[in-house]
Design goal:
Length: 201
Amino acid sequence: DLIYRHMVEDVRPESNAVVLCIMDTSGSMDTMKKYLARSFFFLLYQFVCTKYRNVRIVFLAHHTESREVTEEEFFHKGESGGTFISSGYNKALEIIQERYHPSLWNIYAFHCSDGDNFESDNPAALKAAKQLCEVCNLFGYGEIKPLGSRYYESSMLNIFRRLEADNFQTVLIERKEDIWPSFKAFLAKERPREAEVAAET
């Protein structure tokens, strides 16, 4: 399991981090896509655990709506119907506001999807993505497209190219061999947030 709970609470902001795992669980996300997503999330969680003493992990599943779920539900349950990516981002923003203020927490958020989103939702998704960049150390979007899979032509990559933020990275994952180089590209965008700056002053 990805979850490893650090039992000692620490009020020092430089010790605290949260990983927000956001994933499209609509009908188009099949078993292979979820396997590739799980592999990426595992690397991210392990990386964050090497940097911080108190690490939390939050799983957010979305289709046209988003909710916080268990790890088991996140990787093994799906929903029928379409996708509003903005629902996942807005739920992440809500949880950050309620539980993980950037002055006390280092925030890492990553979203995996196959890029199949209702076109009418694209402006809202882009707006919410910009808001996440403002509160995260690092925020990324991974488009999971195994070669030959359905919905290969659908993509959010062009939409997110409009987002100009130093701490935002998009990656395309077509096979398991793409996971490690995609992960390294993602980490290259990390920037210190309030919690880390507080530790240095």
